[in-house]
Every structure is written in structure tokens, then in C-alpha cells.
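Appendix B. Chain record.
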Amino acid sequence: MKSSVTRLFLKNSKLIWVCLVFLFPACRSSQLPASHPIAEPAPSSVKGAWQLTLAADDLTEDVSRVSSGNDEILLLVYTVHDSLAQPEPMIRRLVVLDNAHRTIRDSLPTPVSPLVREWVLVLLEMDSERNLKEIEPIVRVYLKEVFAAYQTKQQSGLNKYLGDEDLLGIQRISVLSPENQSVKKFVFKGVHLFDTYQYTVTLQR
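C-alpha cells predicted for this chain:
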């Protein structure tokens, strides 16, 4: 009787080992939490966001009889990063504003890297047939030159890089603002082809 039991055990030993091989990992995995997190790269901005509002207080194309009655506006916001050769685009929006639609909204993540020093906000009125993909890289590559020409009011310098597009305003915004400063407001105004214009950009958190 004993020998027959031994033979039966040896006969089925391979089957027993196969079962143990498959059951052992299953037992170990059942000890992990059901919602075990998967490691992911840390995002570059995790401290909330600024809410950006662009308001057309006075359109550039709303006075003259030959005016279109609407403004085709390109809104660009770049992050100036010490470790990058070129600014990093954060917002790229091409919108049409008119008397019925004067406001757009977007969000701007708050940088957490100490290498990020400032944002640069650019507001363009599009007057040519170029699209966003054609004009945005030019602004990004020559941002320093465009800013310098705007500061010194060198129209020839602006025309060199922007062509027929009109630069309504450009603003450097310090990221290292006081913690209690929850609102930043910038007003861009002037005259374009005998039509006055005014745009207000508000950052709020």
C-alpha cells in the first residue's frame, strides 16, 4: 500500500510543481493594493495655474468704413528658461475678435523650476495670409530682436521679422512675483491705420 502511494506521488509530482509555479506569483500579487500607482515622470508645472483673460476694449478694425469689423489676433506666451536656447511656447492661439466676441480665456501653468525666470507675452494682429504655424516659429527664434525693436520703436526692425503683421504689444512678466500678488494686468493701446485700439491682458490665480 505504501509503495503504491509513493508511486502515485511521484507520478503526479510534475503536476504539483507546475501548480506551485503558477500559484506562487498570484499569491504575491494579491498582497499589493488594488490601486497600486504606476510611476510617471513628474510634470514641469504642478502648483496650479494662472487664468489668462484677453479683452478687446477697443478693436483696431471698427472705425473706418473699409475696416473688416474684426481683429485676427495671435496671442503668444513664452517661458524663458535658462537651460534652453529658445523660449518655450506655453500659449499659441489665433482668434478672431469682434463686437460680439471680445474676450478669450486660457490658463498658464505656474512653473516650479528655478531655471524659469519669466514669461514673455506677445500680441499680434495678423494682416497677411500667413497662418499660426508660419509666424509663430519666427517670433520664437527672434524674440529678443523683436522685443528690442519694440522697445526702441524701430518699425523697420519689426517689419524685418514680422512683415505685414502688426505687433500690438509685448510684455515681459516676472515669474518670481510676491505670493500675495494674485492679479497681473497689462494694457496695450495705440493707433493702427487711423483706428485706435486697446487690449487688456489679465492674469489671475
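Further analysis of this model is presented in Appendix C.
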